[in-house]
Amino acid sequence: MTTHDTPPALPRATHPWVDRYLEHLVVAKGLSEHSIAAYSTDIAGFLIFLNDHSGSLEATSDETVLLYLMHLRSRGLASRSLARHLSALRGFFAFAADESWLRRSPAALIENPKLPRLLPDVLSREDMARLLDAPDTTKPLGYRDRTMLELLYAAGLRVSELVGLTLADYDAQAGLLRVFGKGSKERVTPIHALAREFLSTYIATVRGAFGPREPYVFLNRSGRGLTRQAVWKGIKRYALAADVSTRISPHSLRHSFATHLLDGGADLRTVQLLLGHADISATEIYTHVQAGRLLAVHRAHHPRSRDRDKG
Fold first, then answer.
1. Distances (CA, A) of 131 to 125, 174, 192, 198, 262
2. Positions marked active-site
3. Can you tell me the distance from the alpha carbon of 178 to that of 193, in angstroms, rounded to the nearest whole number?
4. How crowded is the C-beta side of 15, counted as CA atoms within 13 Å?
5. What is the pLDDT of residues 111-168, one digit of tens each?
6. What SS3 state is found at 100?
7. Structure pTM?
8. First CA to last CA across the chain, in angstroms?
9. Strand pairing of 170-171 and 186-190?
10. Residues 6 or more apart in contact with residue 88 via CB below 8 angstroms
């Protein structure tokens, strides 16, 4: 019987360098059996390409890697799949260079294929209203969950930021939250009056019902902080109960927060600061959502667009 201490079986040998690298991923990196199999498959594809073109790992150059990517593209692979294959080769060749099998990595300077920007799922204002109203606020769990939903939408929080909030992070008088985002980067964000009312009432009269054992704002039945998975399951449950038509993701309320702010006239720089994005390019994706809505409105209401549709 396999125990948790037993490392996953390595895939069948394909090349001594590859075998060493996969072993390194198991022992030093602790990657899962699924991840090891994925790396093995991607690198094996490159080995087959080399064999078909009378090449070798020892003689691989930047041009060889580029030709391989062109080969994959000719087979119809999308940019995201190409980026995954390149990432696998980058890791392998970096390891080979560290082991002095190669003088340098032939994949190090090759740029990633441009990936399509996936537009976020955004709830309509009507769906958002139904979602916020879904919890039963007459019960402690329902009031807690309503408060969490209000904060996610009021401040554009990531779920990880929400569960990390402590009592010391809330300034009730000023209506401000201190949030620790990615890389423990701190930001201060305001919340509107309704969210403040829910949060203050929850802390003063509801939170104690959970028998607090930790300083986190939101607690489970054992009085300890919630996990991201627990919050996400709750969001999905309430979305189903509210008959929300939009596909829900853990970031749906954050995406909706940003998009609704832009729809209301907020500038991109302000939304960037509120979201805690280090680079404004990460915020610009929401302008695509906004532009799509503006185009739909234009087509629906501009007289020339209507005349053309009638024709």
1. 10, 27, 18, 15, 21
2. 158, 182, 251, 254, 277, 286
3. 17
4. 19
5. 877 655 555 678 989 999 999 999 999 999 999 999 999 999 999 999 999 999 999 9
6. coil
7. 0.58
8. 72
9. unpaired
10. 38, 39, 42, 43
DSSP string, 28-46: TS---HHHHHHHHHHHHHH
HSE of 305 in the Cβ direction (CA atoms, 13 Å)? 8
Query: What is the DSSP code string of 255-281?
Result: HHHHHHHHHTT--HHHHHHHHT-SSGG
Token representation of residue 88 = 């696998």
Tens of pLDDT, residues 266-284: 877 888 888 887 666 666 6
Distance CA 231, CA 98 (A): 42
What does 141-208 look like in DSSP terms, one character per residue?
A: HHHHHHHHHHHHHHH---HHHHHT-BGGGEETTTTEEEEE-GGG-EEEEE--HHHHHHHHHIIIIIGG
Q: How many CB atoms lie within 10 A of CB 218?
A: 20
What residue has token string 């209000």? 150
